[in-house]
Amino acid sequence: MAKETTTKKTTTKKSTKAKEVATPEVATTVASPEANVSSADRTVADKLIALSRLQETFTKIDHIKTLRGELPLEVQDLEDEIEGMETRLKHLEEDNKRQVQAVATEKAKIQKAEERIEEYKEQLNNVKNNREYDNLSKEIEFQGLEIELSQKRIAEGTTEIQHRKERIATLKETIGERRVDLEAKQEELARIKGETKQEEESLRAEAIRLEEGIEERLLHAFTRIREGARNGLAVVPIDRDACGGCFNKIPPQRQVDLKLHKKIIVCEYCGRILVDPELVEEAHQHN
Predict the structure, then answer these.
(1) Residue 274 — left, alpha, or beta (φ > 0 → left; ψ -120 to 50 → alpha)?
(2) What's the total number of domains in the chain?
(3) Has residue 110 been placed in a domain?
(4) Is 265 helix (H, G, I), strand (E, B) or coil?
(5) Could you say which DSSP state residue 262 is in?
(6) Considering the entire predicted model, what is its pTM?
């Protein structure tokens, strides 16, 4: 009996030790999913940081464009205006050439009509009957009317030519003034571009590099939102419990979700991508 009791105690001790050894293995198994979730959180946070950095880069590029102001548009408008006026000038000059040719044609008609009148008058001296006289008289009268019509056309044409010349002179003067304005604005625009060219090229290169590190789906959404936004902001932080883009109030639960960095969250009012201010600050430090 004593041996049996000893055997039972020994078996119980071995069983207890086996349980104690097995316990750490269970703890390790439970800890593994938590590590996986933590890794996923960091992935979403990294995506948001990358989007914030890209947004900050594009904002700097937009600021450079703002420094140029309306100059590019003004230069384009002046170029279009000058082109339109030069086209108008070309048409006026062509019309004047045609009008001069028309006046010359009418003068030739007058000369020819006068020659015929002289011929008919000579023939009047050799008429044999009244019928021939009447016919020649009618021809002389008809040629006289042709001369009067041509003279009227010459007068009208000459007046049109003169008016057109005045318009051409005024238009040339206006074109000259616009060219002076254009050159001044082009010089100013070139100066501003020269001052910001290196910085803008560097920022655009940085934007391309950042885009390569963002998945295509997110990049497409970013581009679409940015194109639709007035201020070019596609990624905004929460400021005073409100969206940094449209300034509408963000529900508390949504703010909590944003802090957890478990998924990409967009503003339900304007559709912009919302980012935790802490991640924005981290992105700013990277830039």
Answers:
(1) beta
(2) 2
(3) yes
(4) strand
(5) S
(6) 0.52
